[in-house]
């Protein structure tokens, strides 16, 4: 009994690592995207979050804006690309830590879901690498490699949001924090919202100066980041509740 309690306590502490990593990743993303936006040179016109895409922020050369048809330069492109890389890496590390800490809670009901979510984690991380390493600019379009950039977005949007949805199917897949009914309901909403945004992105007509590329691209990725924050909060709450529920020694 003592060894089992020690194992559970150790698992809870390891799960806290994932929570801290998730929060750090989201904070890092927010800072890095804002920093990249502040270095986006677009003349006298203001940055339009609704139209300008994350992909534009990561292009490492001066380009003619594909929607507005004037020169733009993302002087801090490295910040946006680093945001992609760190988001993919930390998501993967956090998920793998939770997968490890919850290994003693595996049931017949959760085995398949855990395997699928492991694969989705790998695909999500790979998608972020593609987004950050192959840019979405005219040079890549000329070289006929821009498809890899959009493949990266596809992996991130589908794998990341499917992971959120699957976490709502059965509780306790990656830990007791996923058994909370509010966590599962919000995970489902976030996942469906992200997939809907990606559908809208794919359904955009021929792009012009007012096409909401930025809105739907961000709408495909932000819900995954929000799910990480939700997971972190749920881990902190469940760990705190578990600690307070332990009987005190006489």
From TrEMBL:
For the keyword Transmembrane, the answer is: yes
Keywords linked to the UniProt accession: Membrane, Transmembrane, Transmembrane helix
Keyword Secreted present in the record's keywords: the answer is no
> Which ranges does the record mark as transmembrane?
12-32, 79-98, 118-136, 148-170, 182-201, 221-241
Q: Where is coiled-coil annotated?
A: none
Descriptive protein name: DUF998 domain-containing protein
Q: Which domain of life is it from?
A: Eukaryota
- Give the organism the record lists: Pseudocercospora fuligena
């Amino acid at each position: 009994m003592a060894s089992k309690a020690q194992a559970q306590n150790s698992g809870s502490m390891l799960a806290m690592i994932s929570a801290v990593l998730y929060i750090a990743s989201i904070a890092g993303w927010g800072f890095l995207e804002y920093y990249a936006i502040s270095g986006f040179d677009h003349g006298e016109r203001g940055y339009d979050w609704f139209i300008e895409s994350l992909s534009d922020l990561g292009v490492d050369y001066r380009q003619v804006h594909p929607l507005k048809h004037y020169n733009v330069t993302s002087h801090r492109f490295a910040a946006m690309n680093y945001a992609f890389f760190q988001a993919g890496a930390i998501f993967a590390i956090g998920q793998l830590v939770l997968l490890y800490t919850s290994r003693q809670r595996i049931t017949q009901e959760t085995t398949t879901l855990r395997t699928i979510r492991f694969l989705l984690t790998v695909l999500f991380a790979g998608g972020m690498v593609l987004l950050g390493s192959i840019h979405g600019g005219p040079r890549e379009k000329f070289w006929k490699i821009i498809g890899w950039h959009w493949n990266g977005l596809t992996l991130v949007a589908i794998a990341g949001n499917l992971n959120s949805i699957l976490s709502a199917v059965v509780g306790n897949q990656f830990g007791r924090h996923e058994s909370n009914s509010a966590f599962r309901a919000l995970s489902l909403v976030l996942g469906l919202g992200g997939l809907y945004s990606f559908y809208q992105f794919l359904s955009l007509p021929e792009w012009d100066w007012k096409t909401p590329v930025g809105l739907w691209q961000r709408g495909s990725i932000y819900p995954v980041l929000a799910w990480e924050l939700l997971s972190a909060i749920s881990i902190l709450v469940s760990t705190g509740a578990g600690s307070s529920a332990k009987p005190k020694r006489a």
